[in-house]
Amino acid sequence: MLGRVTQGTITNQLLRNINKNLGQMQGLQEQLSTGMKLNRPSDDPVGITYSLRYRSDLSLNERYQENVTAAASWLDYSDTLLNQVGEIVKRAKELAIQGSNGTNPNVALDNVAAEMKQLKDQLQGIGNSQFKGKYVFNGQFTDVEPYTDLTNAAKTLTDDFGLEYLISSGAPVRVNLTGNDVFGYPPSGVTAPKNEDDNLFHVLDQMIQSLEAGDHAGVAAQLPFLDTRANKILTQRAELGARVNRVELMEQRLKDLNLNLTTLQSKTEDADIEDVLIKSKVNESVYQASLSVGAKVIQPSLVDFLR
After folding, report:
1. CATH homologous superfamily for 65-263?
2. Could you tell me which residues come within 8 angstroms of residue 75 by beta carbon, excluding any fewer than 6 positions away?
3. pLDDT per residue over 24-34, tens digit each?
4. The model scores a pTM over 0.85
């Protein structure tokens, strides 16, 4: 048996439907004003889960990109310094060949020795180079100047630990070279983890002493050590180049990943403005129609006649 339908029942149902249409129109207007289809978790509980995941991945990706930029800058600076060291070795070899010529008078040898000393000063300056306030060639002791005593520079032991930047999950890359990697470990007779007689400071010291003593043969004897050190510097530059290539490849990969994640986030969060506009206009028409129908459905009451 059907229940009795009263005017109040009709009115309440009409108001519920009108409020429903009004709520839908409000939701569409909110999407238009914010440009987002996810304005609160209740809009799409599943979608908000993906949205938070994409935001987290993007944030992590941005940190990796910052590390890639910092690593590339450090590697480029180190390569520049190695190039300068290579030029000094090249010039030192030219001077050594000139000084080993037995026809040169002592005055010429003294001039060569003076320039050798200038080259050694330049080496110390390179060895104490800083990048963004950090000493480049002293391992993890970036706040400690490695070559403070030019007289005993050949005996200096720098920190051997590397600086690493995490450029991807589980993918650290070392960005620094130590002073002993570049200039050499102390020569024989000095207590050290290992000894290298082609230590660049030591070789220059030996040549300067020989030049000041007029010992042409002593100068010539150091030429092979200059060659071995030059080869080691080239090896270090090649290793730096390999690291730079790796960082550049990772940089491109992170850019691609960032674009992919941004696209996925946009599909999850952003509103389709054209679609929302159409729905909004349709909903507005439905709302206006419901108001019009409601005005006809709700009949005048006795109070209206008493006015």
Report:
1. f41 fragment of flagellin, N-terminal domain (1.20.1330.10)
2. 175, 240, 243, 244, 247
3. 766 667 666 67
4. no
